[in-house]
Amino acid sequence: xxxxxxxxxxxxxxxxxxxxxxxxxxxxxxxxxxxxxxxxxxxxxxxxxxxxxxxxxxxxxxxxxxxxxxxxxxxxxxxxxxxxxxxxxxxxxxxxxxxxxxxxxxxxxxxxxxxxxxxxxxxxxxxxxxxx
Length: 132
Description:
By secondary structure, the protein is an all-beta fold. It is built from no helices and six strands.
């Protein structure tokens, strides 16, 4: 006897795709392999739901007498965690790394030094950078 379990894989970035996994007689577990490919796009968490949608069992013409899908455990949630520094990587600009300034003498006005911080890679969201 062979069972086919149909699976729907979807998230907000992809159209739904339908896949299947087969169980031979006496087999209790089958693996579904999902490949997460690398990219350089800074991204926040991406959530995908994998849902068991249909069971087709051979040998039973009456669908109410064959295998069924659990109504409680029919959907798995997979989260691809935030990656590629979605909020940015912060550093001083090259011009700000080394500074020299003369201390004012007497009644001269104060000297002012400007240091610049740069945000590279991702720029998602508002970020506060502290310094000391």
